[in-house]
Amino acid sequence: MPDSSGSSLSGPGAITGKWRGALESGAGMERQRTVRVVNEQGMHARPCHAVVSKAQPFRSDLRIRFGGRVVNGKSILELMTLGASQGAELELTAKGEDAEALLEEIGRLFEGGFGEIGD
What we know:
It contains three helices and five strands, in the order E-E-H-E-E-H-E-H.
């Protein structure tokens, strides 16, 4: 079923939206993307570490929203406090010159279930 951005949720690691809200600013682009946690254990230490490790080399800021809270996506401690379990949808917002590439990389982690999905 298409979401409000016109994309469909399909497959276990579906990214639930196209690029939303590309805004130009002095600090570069701001991009948003919604992802679903598909791995059975949710966002425990290993997936949180994977997100932070992938995000660190990028210049853009990464914010992750879940359950009314917004945390720094480059902080493992903040990310773990979200307590996002399997099935949770997280809204990712990246702002900066490489925002689009950052969200692509993080999106791939979620799509692949952080390597925790059995074949």
